[in-house]
Amino acid sequence: MARLAATPRWQALLHINPGATLRGVGTSYVDDADFFLSANGARDPLAELRATRKALAPPHSPARCRFPARYRFLAEHLGWHEADPLGHCQAYHDWRERMPIGQLVLVFPAAYLNSPSSMFGHTLLRLDASKTPESEYLSRAITFSAQTAGQDNSALYIWRGLAGGYPGRFSVSSYAQRIHQYGFLENRDIWEYTLNLNHDELDWLVAHLWELRDINFDYYFFDENCSFRLLELVNVARPEADLLQGLRVTELPVHTIRTLEQAGLVTSRHYRASKVNALTHAAEALSPADRRLAARLMHDPSLLESNAFKARPPGQRHRIADVAYQALRIKGRKSARSRDTAQASLALLRAVQQNPAPPDTAAAAPAPPEAGHRTHLASLAAGSLDGRAFGEFGFRMTYHDVLDRPQGYLDGAGIEGFNLKLRAYEDGDVELERLDLVHIRSIAPRSTFFSPISWFVDGGLEQVPLEHDRGLGLQIQGGPGLAWQLGHLRPYGFAVARAETVPQSEPTLAAGAGAQLGALWIQKPVQLGIDFEQLYFTPGFERQRTSLTANVPISTNNALRSSCRYESQDSGGITQCQIGFRHFF
Predict the structure, then answer these.
(1) Do the beta carbons of residue 529 and residue 519 sit within 8 Å?
(2) Which of 27, 54, 24, 21 is nearest to 40 (CA)?
(3) What is the per-residue pLDDT across 337-385, written as a single tens digit (0 to 9) for each?
(4) 438-478 residue pLDDT tens
(5) Could you confirm whether domain 372-584 is CATH 3.30.70.120?
(6) pTM higher than 0.85, yes or no?
(7) Which of 179, 171, 248, 255 is nearest to 210 (CA)?
(8) Per-domain residue ranges of the chain
(9) Does residue 273 contact residue 281 with C-beta atoms inside 8 Å?
(10) Which residues pair with 484 in a beta bridge?
(11) DSSP structural state of residue 293
């Protein structure tokens, strides 16, 4: 029995931690006594195996209905042969009839910065009835999520998620609901990865999913999260793939995709553009005059009878009406449709159908998430602070800033956590330059049809300019803003509110407000950023900062970065420039 308890399948069925995370190595990730038949089952796989054998051996045992995957495991290894061992489990059979078992797909909705639980993207599994389903909207979605009851604000959610303050559970729902939420309501691109699990392996997964109904796990935001739990579930289907090998300090959705690819489970990839991105691409194919006409049609469909519309060629009319129709649908997605809106939609749809479609101009899929750089960063730089030479070591736990190599990441979005920079100066001094606990930027451009609000938030320790020196201070700042797209240039502006405490200054606590103006130029060979910030503080001083940064990727996971910055508080000014090497791992 000891050898059987050590098999990969039994370990996977009990969710034993093989060393994938630091907490509870050798014990079960399940945090629910109802999942175990032995009092010591969470810590002793052999004791749980013996208790399971005892409970499942009698014919018509209720425990068989609770643990069908465990029963199959024991029956195969112990030679139990019964014609219909689960025939008395009507509830289980009724549930299984509603679960398609033809194909499993990993689904990755891209990052969504307005939700703390989805800042890095999200993962779920989709069960299809066959390898060529007639409609994916009839498929089932398997998700794992924190049980928050929807009462906590974003800051409290992040704190409790980091500390393991929520239980997490698996759930099964309609895939159509998930598509509507992610792709339509939240404007998120969706990537779908078909896995090569066969029918027998899927049977293991689905049977075990029944065993996990209403079972609690610990939920930790950075490692024991939705992505990690889905890997555990797939590991039950194919334990020999050893999907949990190696220590994970963080487990992000993109890590899950890479793990499955490296294990040879991914057979194909499909890109599903969000409604907003599909509309943006369609609108970009129009001239500025045509876009303005489409925007007017959206509000006044009677212009379909105007000379301005009818004078255009049929293919052009098709595109203009289609853009107006898509924009009107997106505009009304979160509110009840009025009669006027419904009539306008119908009129625009008729115009689309009545004018022959031009050649297809569907958007090419962007680089997939797994094509991006790795999410940890180590850097070395050399520079000068007002003629004082220094060397700088940097480490960033996660994940991406707006000037990193953009392929595979959300355009205009930067999420940085635990960003550390230490400096050693030529005179022997070693100083903490900064420690960003969180640094998030969403620079979303406005357009003819959309008017998103950009925003940013920073928090942590940093060296700030004082009147004649610099001092290490604790700060938090953020604010809303606006951004635009002018060719490859993306100018933006933020309103800024800041609070800081700097022991070397007088007074030590200060609050300020002001503005930040900047621009990004993001292309494959190089990424450039420039910004200017002006803040006024309540003690009566003011502070300015101007910076210019260039990033040059030399491979997927390596880059050169140079920057120059001028900072001043009242009359005193400091100039620093540096160049460094960055490695993602």
Answers:
(1) yes
(2) 27
(3) 677 788 999 999 999 999 998 887 666 789 999 999 999 999 999 999 9
(4) 999 999 999 999 999 999 999 999 999 988 889 999 999 99
(5) no
(6) yes
(7) 171
(8) 2-96, 98-272, 286-354, 372-584
(9) yes
(10) 446
(11) H
